[in-house]
Amino acid sequence: MVQEFEMTDIGLMTHFLGIEVMQRDDGIFISQTRYAKDILKRFGMERSNLVTTPVESGVELRKSEIRDVDPPFQKSAKQIQRYVKGTVNDGLFYTLTKDFNLVSYSDSNWERDLDERKSTTGFTFFLGDTTFIWSSKKQAIVTLTSCEAEYVIATSVVCHEIC
Questions:
Q1: What share of the chain is helix, strand, coil (3-state, %, to 5)?
Q2: What is the rounded (10 degree) CA torsion for 150, 152, 156, 159?
Q3: 156, 149 in Cβ contact below 8 A?
Q4: Where does the Reverse transcriptase Ty1/copia-type domain start and stop, copy by copy (predicted)?
Q5: What is the DSSP letter of 47?
Q6: What is the pTM of this model?
Q7: N- to C-terminal Cα distance for the chain?
Q8: Taking the alpha carbons of 53, 129, 38, 70 in that order, is the dihedral positive or negative?
Q9: Domain-by-domain residue ranges, the chain?
């Protein structure tokens, strides 16, 4: 490649698209410590108390036609920021291995959205023992059965695997 293109070796990668990268002999560690600290500073939460869960159990946030942020939503947003404060140095470690097993899991929650009756679906992909892609979102269509909701997410997972 050096023969075809003008290149300069600047050493090991330390940052990529806002992600901090630490390369070691046994693997690669990635995190977003700087970004998390910037968010906490932006919202004045640098000195906030820590919490161990991002959202309180049983909290349901619903759409509202009101333009102002309602108190339950605001409380949940602060809870998430306190959780980020406690996990600011966490990240993902990808172990150096020759065994690259790709494993995926998916699930759906049929008609859980009380406003639009759409299912929430999620999936995660593991490469070896570390997650490398995940998603949780509302399905674009209304499904008529829980089986159909599961089929929609299974189709999405297969598309992610082969694309």
A1: 25, 25, 45
A2: 110
A3: no
A4: 1-56
A5: T
A6: 0.67
A7: 26
A8: negative
A9: 10-59+69-96, 98-162
Place of tokens 């990668």: 13
Amino acid at 88: V
- Given a contact cutoff of 8 angstroms between Cβ atoms, the answer to whether 47 and 6 are in contact is no
The string of pLDDT tens digits covering residues 55-72 is: 777 666 666 555 666 777
94, with CB counted inside 10 A (0-12, 13-18, 19+), is middle
| Residues 127, 130, 131, 133, CA torsion sign | negative
Task: State the amino acid at position 133 in one-letter form.
Answer: I
Residue 75, token pair as written in the block: 């409380």
Q: Phi first, then psi: what are they for 20, rounded to 5°?
A: -80, 135
